[in-house]
Design a protein that fits this description.
By secondary structure, the protein is an alpha/beta fold. The chain folds into three domains: 151 residues, 3-Layer(aba) Sandwich (Rossmann fold); 157 residues, Dihydrodipicolinate Reductase, domain 2; 81 residues, Alpha-Beta Plaits. Helices cover 32% and strands 27% of the residues. Strands 9, 11, 12, 13, 14, 15, 17, 19, 20, 21 and 23 form an eleven-stranded mixed β-sheet that branches. It has a six-stranded parallel β-sheet with strand order 5-4-3-6-7-8, with helices on both faces. It is elongated. The two termini are 48 Å apart. It binds NADP nicotinamide-adenine-dinucleotide phosphate (NAP). The site of NADP nicotinamide-adenine-dinucleotide phosphate (NAP) has 21 residues, from helix 2. The site of NADP nicotinamide-adenine-dinucleotide phosphate has 21 residues, from helix 2.
Length: 453
């Protein structure tokens, strides 16, 4: 493999498919036309990549190295049978970095030591395929620059929405549009939890089920508190909005405070609740947020259930485009990784447009859903209305379901569109009222034509 690999073609020789090259320059590459591949990480995705490669038998591609710690343990796993007998298992990263492999597939995750190792791979002329969203969210711009300087490719289409080709779809298919906003469901764990809660289950039970099914980690914070989704949102913003954001500056809100009662009230409003990651560029500022939001039942975002992912892009010229499918799981993600490998092997370059460092704010102009749990006394509604009026927020509706005790009464107020910061100010004051038994809950309501301010 080399920078001139664009000349690679698939041909049939003597009835056998093989990868060949048209130019002498490529034909003289170091591995005689065979693309040698190293896997870093033999976990859920890494072992599935080995399986897909073994079963699909793509001609001209050879898995030559598998790097992982505790190799003896990995070699005993059921998936080890998919690793060719000729491949070298190793616990020494230098066996890969100092080898003649053409493509390093990184499926370990994390920032360290991964970033340093991938830099070494790139500077030694190896292409890199990775599914590592945290690494790409935080270090993607500098790694991409390094890859360009070294005339190799860095491809990460599996990093967002696993098996759903959102990144290549946006790069290749929508690169010609001027994207105005993106919104989506990019964390399958949260979608599993919230779409199960929609049918009446409570948060704690569903989280436990998600952990038993392997959808959620023992410590579910990265998923439920929105950190996983915000890394993905930053990657999508870079591609769609050409905006380089610092993930730490993107506002997040946990789904763990959403309760069954919120789904009941959401239903009254003809909505459901999903963890939404959204970003839009206004002038030079990106408005971005990852939070549970009320989603109208007629929005495609309301239709995604279980671990499904969905991303809706809105372009100036092309309008809305929806991507949806299995956002996670070893095999769906392996499909994205192997597709990246095939593209790199064939020298197919992705569209890269310049990105700019952008300021980010969590401010949106949107209607809001406010849920209070109070010890019911006369004058509560007027106190809440007064606090909202004081910041200039108008009430749109008030909902109170019967059947709750007066001493612990949940009820809901929805507002007309107002700024996030305006609502936060009012909720801060309302939270201090004596009658409030719990911290009031605020959810943005997603509407088709809402704006960022
Ligand atoms: N799973 C998904 O559905 C999915 C979807 C999209 C993207 N991704 C991304 O794909 C990557 C891999 O995910 P995964 O689910 O396959 O993770 P995983 O099951 O935890 O696999 C990671 C593998 O890498 C090994 N490893 C980690 N750090 C290492 C280190 N410093 N040195 C040596 N070996 C190391 C682990 O070894 P041990 O077994 O010893 O821990 C494990 O075998 C992550 O970046 C993840 O965000 C995953």
């Amino acid at each position: 493999m080399c920078g001139a690999a664009l000349c690679n073609v698939w041909i049939t020789e003597n009835g056998r498919e093989t990868m060949a090259t048209k130019s002498k320059k490529v034909a003289a590459k170091k591995n005689d036309g065979v693309v040698k591949v190293a896997l870093l990480g033999f976990g859920t995705v890494g072992s599935s990549v080995a399986k897909v490669l073994a079963q699909s038998k793509f001609a001209g591609i050879e898995l030559t190295h598998v790097y992982n710690r505790s190799v003896a343990r990995k070699k005993e796993s059921a998936a080890a049978k998919f690793v060719p007998a000729t491949a070298k298992w190793t616990e020494n990263i230098d066996d890969v970095l100092k080898s003649n492999v053409d493509v390093v597939i990184e499926l370990m995750g994390g920032l360290n030591p991964t970033e340093g190792w991938l830099k070494k791979a790139i500077t030694s002329g190896k292409h890199v395929v990775t599914a590592n969203k945290q690494l790409i969210a935080y270090k993607g711009v500098s790694l991409q620059r390094l890859a360009a300087q070294n005339n190799v490719q860095l491809v990460y289409n599996a990093a967002v929405a696993g098996g759903v080709p959102v990144i290549p779809g946006m790069k290749q298919g929508l690169g010609g549009d001027r994207m105005q906003r993106i919104s989506g469901i990019v964390n399958g764990t949260c979608n599993y939890i919230l779409s199960r809660m929609e049918t009446g289950a409570d948060y704690a039970t569903v989280l436990k089920d998600a952990q038993q099914l392997g959808y959620a980690e023992a410590n579910p914070s990265a998923d439920v508190d929105g950190f996983d989704a915000r890394a993905k949102l930053c990657i999508l913003s870079r591609i769609a909005l050409h905006a380089d954001l610092n993930p730490d500056e993107v506002a997040t809100q946990t789904i763990s405070s959403v309760e069954a009662v919120d789904f009941m009230y959401a239903k009254e409003l003809n909505c459901t609740i999903r963890q939404i990651s959204r970003a839009q560029l206004e002038g030079t500022v990106v408005h971005a947020r990852v939070a549970p939001m009320l989603v109208p039942m007629d929005s495609p975002l309301a239709w995604s259930h279980g671990t499904q992912n969905m991303v809706v892009t809105s372009g100036l010229y092309g309008g809305d485009v929806v991507f949806s499918g299995h956002g996670a799981g070893g095999e769906p993600t392996a499909v994205a990784v192997v597709s990246d490998l095939l593209a790199v092997a064939q020298g197919a370059k992705s569209v890269e447009l310049p990105v700019r460092k952008r300021q980010v704010t969590g401010e949106f102009m949107a209607p809001h859903y406010l849920r209070f749990v109070v010890d019911d006394k006369p004058g509560i509604v007027s106190s809440i209305a007064g606090a909202l009026a004081k910041v200039g927020a108008n009430i749109d509706s008030l909902l109170q379901k019967p059947g709750y005790p007066k001493h612990k009464l949940p009820f809901v107020v929805t507002t007309e569109p107002c700024l996030t910061s305006t609502i936060e100010k009012a909720m801060h004051a309302i939270g201090k009222l004596d009658c409030m038994l719990e911290k009031p809950m605020t959810l943005q309501m997603l509407v088709a034509d809402d704006t960022a301010e």
